[in-house]
Design a protein that fits this description.
- The structure is a single chain.
- With about 170 residues, this protein is mainly α.
- The protein has six helices and two strands, in the order αααααββα.
- A two-stranded antiparallel sheet has the order 1-2.
Length: about 170
């Protein structure tokens, strides 16, 4: 049976994915995300289920039924927006949810820039995943941009690194 056209978009809309990405468009309201996050997430959960079932079959000699769906697929990938919204709805006095960006489109969360997705001049897209200062420093070195760390707005950046981020070789 073929997949109904547009089904993934309906699932993502119902789950609020497009609302969570509203800062991607200049107009007010939700932003359509054409990347098949739900389908990709569903394939990954199916793959994990299949591999786990095969591994289990080695010791139990029994087969298993593995199922995956778009709802669980997209929520497995976008746990932050989904989880914070759920917690703020269930316990409004204990947790207040805020938008990812303020009215000036400045990010309200520390992971916005480290997980930046940006287009290049030649039409390709890049996604960065430098979530620790040491990774940002390494990326800047790789790009030949280490000199920007001497800019006053970066003062204290390297010192903000926690000891747990340091490579450990078992030496003190």
């Amino acid at each position: 049976m073929g997949r109904p056209e547009g089904y993934e978009g309906l699932v993502m809309a119902k789950l609020g994915t497009f609302h969570a990405k509203e800062a991607m468009v200049a107009r007010p309201g939700p932003a359509f995300v054409s990347v098949p996050y739900a389908g990709w997430g569903a394939t990954q959960t199916a793959l994990h289920g299949i591999l786990t079932a095969l591994f289990d079959r080695e010791s139990t000699c029994r087969g298993q039924n593995v199922q995956a769906d778009l709802v669980r697929g997209v929520t497995a990938l976008d746990t932050w927006a989904w989880y914070t919204e759920m917690v703020s709805v269930r316990w409004p006095d204990a947790y207040r949810s805020v938008n990812a960006f303020d009215e000036n489109l400045d990010p309200q969360a520390p992971l916005i820039y480290p997980l930046l997705i940006a287009p290049t001049k030649d039409g390709h897209w890049l996604q960065f995943a430098q979530t620790e200062p040491r990774l940002i420093v390494a990326m800047l070195a790789e790009f030949g941009l280490s000199e920007i760390l001497s800019d006053p707005k970066w003062v204290g950046f390297r010192r903000s690194r926690r000891r747990s981020c340091e490579p450990s070789c078992g030496r003190s």
